[in-house]
Amino acid sequence: MDLGGKVVVITGAAGGIGAAMARRFSDAGVAGMLLADLDAPAVESLSRSIDGVRTRAIHCDVTDPAQVEALVEAAHESFGPVDLFCSNAGITTGTGLDTTDDAWQRAWSINVHAHVVAARAVLPSMLDRGAGYLLQTCSAAGLLTAVGDAPYAVTKHAAVGFAEWLSMTYGDRGIKVSALCPQGVATPMLEHGLTQGHAGALVTAAAGEVLTAEQVAEAVVAGLAAERFLILPHPEVATYQQRKAEDPDRWLTSMRKLITRVSSTA
């Protein structure tokens, strides 16, 4: 996809990867961007900071179908049909078996079902035109795992699975799908985990280079241009995924050793 002249929607746009994508897409010459987030003041500030591209900021709960449908309608009204919908909102829990049922449900609603809600809202118009692109932020946790965070590991695997299903089902009807799967990214989410000494954050930081959100956004632009299903800002994730597939038992043993090593030095 050439982003020039395209209409884009980004959820979870107020900070981190979402905000970095908005700025990078602006540089790429998109025609208009609708930026959505629960943090209305932050996303409005981002919208005002972007020059040279028409933008609109909207408060949106991505788990609410009515609000997401309204989001797509607002994009159509402001800029025209949506060419690229970036389902970027996500949360972590930092918990395991002690995760409450409510926390499991919230992780599921935001990390997985929000992608379903978005697809339902935007796909009909894309299918009518025979063209459209869905970018799902899924995380390397969706291909590998998330140490110390059972809901995140499980829901991100499900998010990758849904992205695969969308591509298989609609790829021959003009719909492109990419799953963005970064590893460590210097966002408040990771920084908070490192400050708190969470095992998952420590292992993520130890597993490879921690990229900036801007580096991830650059990888997104390259991945969209190549129309790759898996966008891997950390190329080593492909190697880890291959090792996991070739010998799951060996991979699990290596993960246990990594957790022990990181925990002993924390």
From TrEMBL:
Keywords of this entry: Oxidoreductase
Signal peptide bounds: none
Entry's Gene Ontology molecular function annotations: oxidoreductase activity, acting on the CH-OH group of donors, NAD or NADP as acceptor
Superkingdom in the source lineage: Bacteria
One Pfam family of this chain: adh_short
PANTHER family per the UniProt record, alphabetical: PKSB (PTHR24322), RETINOL DEHYDROGENASE 10 (PTHR24322:SF736)
Similarity section: Belongs to the short-chain dehydrogenases/reductases (SDR) family.
Listed name of the protein: NADP-dependent 3-hydroxy acid dehydrogenase YdfG
Organism this protein belongs to: Asanoa ferruginea
